[in-house]
Amino acid sequence: MQLVWFRNDLRTSDNSALYYACLKGPVTGIYFVTPGQWKSHNLAPIQADFIEQNLQSLSIELCALGIPLLIEEVTDFSQIPARLKQIQKVHHIEVIHANEEPEINEKKRDQAVKEAGLPLILYQCDCILEAGSVVTLQGDMYKVFSAFRNAWMKKIKQTDIRPLPKPRAQASPLDANRAQNVSLNYDKKSSQAWPAGEREALRRLRHFLLQDIEDYHHNRDIPSLDGTSGLSAYLRLGVISAKRCVNEVLAAFPYALDAQDSGVFSWLNEIVWREFYRHIMILNPQLCKGKNFNKLADNIIWNNNREDFKAWCEGRTGYGLVDAAMRQLNETGWMHNRLRMVTASFLTKHLLIDWRWGENYFMGKLIDGDLASNNGGWQWAASTGCDAQPYFRIFNPIIQSQKFDPEGLFIRKYIKELNEFDNKKIHFPVNAIVEHKQARLNALDRYSVLKKG
Questions:
Q1: Which helix (H) or strand (E) holds 343?
Q2: Do the domain assignments include residue 380?
Q3: Is residue 38 among the annotated active site residues?
Q4: Is 194 a catalytic site residue?
Q5: Would residue 130 show up in a list of annotated catalytic residues for this protein?
Q6: pLDDT tens-digit profile of 26-71?
Q7: Is 337 a catalytic residue?
Q8: Is residue 33 assigned to a domain?
């Protein structure tokens, strides 16, 4: 009997651990619910609900393959080795198969399982190209994203990235009634706006390829448009793999890797950013502990005014686009990518509040909250990360609003009290907690510690 330990890979196709386990013998699946660990990692209630829905869907898919799925609850990672030993004995498990995860606590968990004498085999399935495989001629990790992307894309052209198929059914399919009735012991917020399951994820991807990807570079920054793929939450839980996404894109648009002015390339670029942040985190595990990538940033003196932070969290800064974005996050559990940059820049540069406060708040709200991408994005905006924006680049929230929401459509959707403002007035601050020009000067002064030399 082979045991497949599901983590953030809640799918049956292009799942290395599941595929290779099925080649070795009969399979049982397992998923560990760890409410104490989730709480310490600040798992968002909406993401917990999305996990629940996708586990339910996965259980049904596995039943069709004749594979039962065990749902086991332990408080945290430290209790998993002992529980696995019990399960190994009861189910006569020969080998445990699992896909690697990039975070440091997860790596320590897997090491503890191995040290307990359990037969754990790990597969690299999270990144398309393994961390450490895209390096300079000197063997170092790229510190500049564009150089990483160029090397990554060159290597992709030489790599077979066809996704693994769904494994064959073992014996006869199980009665669908044997699918788990999943109910997680954790605070939850409805994720019904994101239907669960890998079929839904693939449907969304193919719809995006047919309808929207060619205009992605024009529409991706306009928050009032539905111009993105809507796949981030599915990628986060591994309901669809990044490899499957790239493979489907290249099948539809074989020229995509060379057409840098196209919408298709622009979307692939976002997948590569995901890879970049994962590679950086795996090779720099201190990032999981809230450390600045740029050590000079340790010298920044933050204001960390709690009233200002509360106003930012609640969408009460007085800047329409910033406030609408925060209200979108609080109401829906998701935020448009352009607005993630705008709100993060505002918190760290205008209010001079430590990026870690914002990173933590986002993780507690986002359905697609992912440590590598969230940390990378926040450190990019705060100018403390790897290939971050220059410290002197400070988004003007008024100009951002005028440029990306010119008619105030997005602002009006989330801030009803501004509905009566015309298309010019709606972009300017009302009872703002900080004035842009002075905030910019303050930021330049505080961030001067990042000057090279």
A1: helix 337-345
A2: yes
A3: no
A4: no
A5: no
A6: 999 999 999 999 999 999 999 999 999 999 999 999 999 999 999 9
A7: yes
A8: yes
